[in-house]
Amino acid sequence: MTRLLLCALIGFGPAVAQNLLVNGDFEQDLTVGWTRNPVGLGTHTFDRGTHYHPDPDYEAYLQQYSGAGSTSLDQMVSVSNLNLDFSFWAKMNLGAGSSTCWPVSAVILGYYDRDNAFQGDTRFYYPSPYCNWVSTGTTHLIQVPNTEWNRFQINVYDELTQNLPDVPIRFVQKLKVSVYAATSGG
């Protein structure tokens, strides 16, 4: 079982006040701006509420329970400039896992070309000990340090040039944010 809570604001921009995502603060229903993407087996839970975090704002809650599958909220945006800061608050945690049924929670920033062809991604993730994800030239893994609320921020251009050498930066014209929870089996 995996669970992922995502707080208040997912933002892109040279300043935190700018947000290129529709409903990046989850103040509207999750059907506004976001695509729900339940894949595979298990129970897929999508929720939003003000009771997940001590502040009065809304947060999104995702859970993938049992069975090989994933649960994600996704949103893709076109960008003309990659010198953007991507930031968010998240609280991630997991239920039990094993070598044949390992859970993972993540916020994934995907890089796409103008035709929506995947080029690579950056994954902020909280894995079980059995998670088999690895960093490559097109995937950069950033492990979440704990199950508390944490704020994360990266500059998209710096991330691409410093950590993803096999992503052709000149082709990246779209960014996809995925709030993601998955179980490999069970």
Strand content: over 45%
Overall SS class: mainly beta
Biggest pleated-sheet summary: 6 strands, mixed
Number of strands: 11
Q: Average pLDDT across residues?
A: 87
What is the CATH first-level class name? Mainly Beta
Can you tell me the overall shape? globular
Helix content percent band: under 10%
Strand arrangement in the largest pleated sheet: 2-5-11-7-8-9
End-to-end Cα distance = 9 Å
Please state the second-level CATH architecture.
Answer: Sandwich
Low-confidence runs: 4-8
Q: How many domains make up the 3D coordinates? A: 1
Return the CATH topology: Jelly Rolls
Walk me through what this model shows.
The chain is built from 1 helix and 11 strands, in the order ββββββββββαβ. The protein is mainly beta and 186 residues long. It has a single domain, classed as Sandwich (Jelly Rolls). The strands form 2 sheets. The protein has a 6-stranded mixed β-sheet, with no helix packed on it. Strands 3-4-1-6-10 form a 5-stranded antiparallel β-sheet. The protein is globular.
Q: Would you summarize the structure shown here?
A:
The protein is built from 1 helix and 11 strands, in the order E-E-E-E-E-E-E-E-E-E-H-E. It has one helix spanning 156-163; strands spanning 2-13, 35-40, 43-49, 59-65, 69-78, 85-94, 103-112, 118-127, 139-143, 150-155, 174-183.
Write the layout of secondary structure elements.
Layout lengths: L1 E12 L21 E6 L2 E7 L9 E7 L3 E10 L6 E10 L8 E10 L5 E10 L11 E5 L6 E6 H8 L10 E10 L3
Parallel strand pairs: 8-9
Antiparallel strand pairs: 1-4, 1-6, 2-5, 3-4, 5-11, 6-10, 7-8, 7-11
